[in-house]
Write a structure and sequence with these properties.
Radius of gyration of chain A: 25 Å
CATH topology of the largest domain in chain B: Rossmann fold
CATH class of the largest domain in chain B: Alpha Beta
Order of helices and strands of chain A: HHHHHHHHHHHHH
CATH class of the largest domain in chain A: Mainly Alpha
Helix content of chain A: 55-70%
Helix content of chain B: 10-25%
Strand content of chain A: under 5%
Structural class of chain A: mainly alpha
Strand order of the largest sheet of chain B: 6-7-8-3-9-10
CATH superfamily of the largest domain in chain A: MetI-like
Oligomer: heterodimer
Order of helices and strands of chain B: EEEHEEEHHHEHEHEEHHEEEEEEEEEE
CATH architecture of the largest domain in chain B: 3-Layer(aba) Sandwich
Radius of gyration of chain B: 25 Å
Amino acid sequence: MTTNPISRFFRWFFYRSRGDSPFKTILIHATLIIACVIAVYPVLRVVTISLRPNDTLLTTDLRIIPENATLDNYKEVLFGDAEKNRQSDFFLWIWNSVSVVAVTSVISVILAAISAYAFSRFRFPGRSAGLIFLLTTQMIPAGMLLLPLFIMIAKLKMINTPLGLIIAYAVTSVPLTIWTLKGYYDTIPVDLEEAALIDGASRLTVFTKIILPLSTPALAIAFLFSFMGGWSEYLVARVVLQKNEMFTWPLGIFTFAQQFTVSWGQFAAASVLIAIPIMALFLYSSKWLISGLTLGSVKG
Amino acid sequence: MASVTFEKVHKKFGDLTIINSLDIEVQDKEFLVLVGPSGCGKTTALRLLAGLEEITGGEIKIGDRLVNDVAPKDRDIAMVFQSYALYPHLSVYDNMAFGLKLRKTPKEEIKRRVSEAADILGIQDLLQRKPRQLSGGQRQRVAVGRAIVREPKVFLFDEPLSNLDAKLRVQMRAEISKLHQRLQTTFIYVTHDQTEAMTMASRIAVINKGDLQQLDTPQNLYDHPNNLFVAGFIGSPSMNFFPAKIVKSGNSMIVDTEDFKVQIPDSLSGPYKNMEGKSVVFGIRPENIHDPEFAPNNIHGEKVASKVDVTELMGNETLLYLVSGKNTYVGRVDPRSKLRVGSQTQFIFDMDKFHIFDAETEKAIR
């Protein structure tokens, strides 16, 4: 037995209970570290740029916290610039985004929760064709849907209204949500529903009292995916919304990019600010990701 | 409390016939066990009665009421599932109260019934727990409790003990029997385990391939099986079967298996008098085969020379796997038997307790 802490660390690192060979361990860790760097580095760069004073924007310095770091960009994004007599629309954009995306997510989760139950539990003509059709809608690139969506919303006279954008987002997110929820419903034992039917429940009661409470993890995920899908969406919003006061934040921050100058610092600061609520949402909902709620219902 | 009637009940899934034409009458307060091998249609029969499957043809009545098109919730039944099917997000109390709440039973009444059922089943301490915090046996009790509180006309059990270990199964078997005596309600119980069927039932319905084979009391089923299937299914180890022919020797009727011949006692030979030359299956239960040293004296014993192939000492009895010519069979003999593997002796067949089946129709001849 060696007592040297370094060699003890190596021993622990290379010969843990999994028994992988040292080569494999190194390979796995190297891959993971590279993947982490690729994922995290650009985000860190955005943070760096947002902290830079405007006169050092084009520096090639690689430090994460730049020299003379300042929060001026954040201040300007949040509260405007009194000197240049510019007001900030930042909170308006966020409000627009949150309201559109939250309503979209609620609508698509409700629609999908109900239709996924039908797809999961009932055998009706057109069931498998319907499921495949829903899947194929996901294979069409968003860009190709742009024109038909625009025409549809224009005919509904909803251009430049939040409702138009909500409809556009909902039609694109419902199919995937149906698939997600159907997959989850399929794992809930039918016995539970039959027991409830015998206990005196109607189909609707079974759905609301048994299936929905058991599906909270899946519903949370579906809501989250739908929310994130709409949160950073640019193309469809660009087509549907043209008035400044209607802008969601992805459209809003492009006002920092004017014809001849781009305020990269503010652009970056706005991006960081916008990432915060979505990160908070993700962290909050992560507790729902731990499923296993159905454990213990059946079998001994 | 109510009787249950299956009249020419028929069930098909697509082209596949699961139940042919089932006629069963379950009397009020009876404990009827449906037993049969996997896939015989017994669970389907129960699900038809519960209303979880639609029947293809025939009639099902609970009491005098035709329930073919009645929704499960309106049939006044309660069911205990093989998987227990406890609602995982509800506490034990809420699991048991679920059905009563849906029926808008007053809160005080719900409390009283749940607490009474919990007392009967000894689960008072568990009422606030979630199903995942319970052991298999406890979950089983909760599932039974959920059925009891409803005070239904008919209790349905779908293999409720098959997920329990052997010891717990024996214990729960006794408790379910006790429960039946206490509640005085109609119980219909599905199992593939003939021991469960024999120990609990007032009557047993043996089902095979969607057909009712025999419906009788456990003892009658054991002593007088109607056909080869029932004879082989009921009893453990199973009855021994030997293909044979009936031959006549003087005034006596003899069963000839080619490897050995046994004489049918004159007092029992009546039904076989005109069957000379007929192909039959001769059946005898393991406990009616004796080690010559310990054979009782007052029986019509017939000697059959056999060799011991395997012995299984059980303590209270010994099982001998025996070979006679091309036939292998099992004898359940006195534990004092000194016979060991390789021993050869004249075993005694108790010919007061034999069975003969038609080789073609497989029906009992008696």
